[in-house]
Specification:
Strand order of the largest sheet: 5-4-1-6-7-8
Radius of gyration: 17 Å
Distance between the termini: 8 Å
Shape: globular
Largest sheet: 6 strands, parallel
Helix content: 40-55%
Strand content: 15-25%
Order of helices and strands: EEHHHHEHEHEHEHEHEH
Structural class: alpha/beta
Number of helices: 10
């Protein structure tokens, strides 16, 4: 049975933002006297929100106050540079057009702070493409907590069992499971197929057009 709605992760799923994220994070931690990391390293650091990104980029057992300071500096840089190198993945716009034609509703649930989540969606996608946009905030715990996904389900008036969650990390797969939704793992993002398989993705795709083929079946 085809889904009645899709919930998309943002970074690593709809947009490739890794270069801007890594550049801003490296600036923040280098200012505090810590070593920077490669582009590839940041693929392992992302997925659990910006604060945890900085925690992962800093040495183990770094004091919370230092992580807080790095996070504050990261936000300052990201506010200015979040669109410098970020782009929409190939095939995403075609997938969106397909969903619209099939009357499949769409939403976004990201661990990126809510203010940046909405800014990125508004920058790269037409207004009303996504009927609800949720980023991390005091009101919405980070994924894999299902609160945000279930809020979307309630807002759309669609049962979780009729919603598919699309994302590129174990966090997204676990969010889908916690929400009683089917999970679609995409390998073009920040993690590999092995992680998506390990955490039990219902479907694994390497290009957005594969999702249209699955839905059409």
């Amino acid at each position: 049975m085809k889904p009645k709605a899709l919930i998309f992760d943002l970074d690593g799923t709809l947009i490739n933002s890794l270069e801007d994220i890594s550049n801003c994070a490296n600036k923040a931690i280098s200012e505090l006297g810590f070593k920077t990391h490669s582009f590839e390293d940041f693929k392992k650091f992302v997925g659990e929100g910006a604060w945890n990104l900085l925690k992962n980029a800093l040495p183990q057992n770094t004091e919370k106050e230092i992580i807080d300071e790095a996070y504050k500096r990261y936000q300052k840089y990201y506010e200015k540079e979040k669109f410098d190198n970020t782009y929409v993945y190939d095939g995403i716009f075609a997938l969106i057009d397909f969903c619209a034609a099939q009357n499949i509703k769409m939403a976004v649930f990201s661990n990126k702070p809510h203010i940046f989540t909405t800014a990125c969606v508004e920058q790269f996608f037409e207004k009303d493409t996504f009927l609800m946009i949720i980023g991390q905030s005091e009101e919405t715990p980070k994924k894999p907590d299902p609160t945000g996904a279930l809020r979307i389900s309630k807002f759309l008036k669609i049962a979780p069992s009729d919603i598919w969650f699309v994302g590129d990390t174990k966090t997204d797969i676990l969010t889908a499971k916690a929400s009683s939704m089917k999970s679609v793992g995409c390998t073009w993002g920040f993690r590999d197929k092995l992680e998506l398989e390990k955490f039990g993705a219902d479907f694994i795709i390497s290009h957005p057009n594969e999702l249209t083929q699955i839905i059409n079946k």
